[in-house]
Amino acid sequence: MAVKIFIKRKMNQSHVKELNSLLTKLRSLTLNQPGYISGETLHRIDKPGESMVVSSWRSVEDWNTWVNNEKRRAIQEEIDQLLGEETDYEIYGS
């Protein structure tokens, strides 16, 4: 069953350049992952600095494999350090 992952982040404006660089790296790695279908980044209009990534995967197993990927985890740790909190993930299926 295909799944959608909702990834919420609140960015500190003082780290935007560094965060964008890390997010670009993460997106580049994601494109080559088995089961990855697509992704879209949305920026909240009424609350600057908040964003949501909607990521589509062939299965929750493919997503879990990606979540546990060492390279992804290393980049994600850097992102969370800059954000000052853990990134929030929600998994939905139809």
Put the structure in a nutshell.
The chain has 94 residues and is an alpha+beta fold. It contains three helices and four strands; from the N terminus they run E-H-E-E-H-H-E.
* Helicity range: 25-40%
Q: What is the averaged pLDDT score? A: 94
Supply Rg.
Answer: 13 Å
Q: Structural class of the secondary structure composition?
A: alpha+beta
* Order of the strands making up the biggest sheet: 2-3-1-4
CATH class: Alpha Beta
Uncertain runs: none
Can you write the helix and strand succession as a string?
EHEEHHE
Give the termini separation.
Answer: 8 Å
Looking at the structure, what is the overall shape? globular
Q: Please name the CATH architecture.
A: 2-Layer Sandwich
Total count of strands:
4
Output the CATH topology: Alpha-Beta Plaits
Overall domain count: 1
What fraction of the residues are assigned to beta strands by DSSP? 25-35%
Sheet with most strands: 4 strands, antiparallel
User: Count the helices. How many?
Assistant: 3
List the SSEs and their pairings:
Layout: E1 3-10, H1 16-30, E2 36-43, E3 50-57, H2 60-67, H3 70-83, E4 88-93
Antiparallel strand pairs: 1-3, 1-4, 2-3
Helix pairs in contact: 1-3
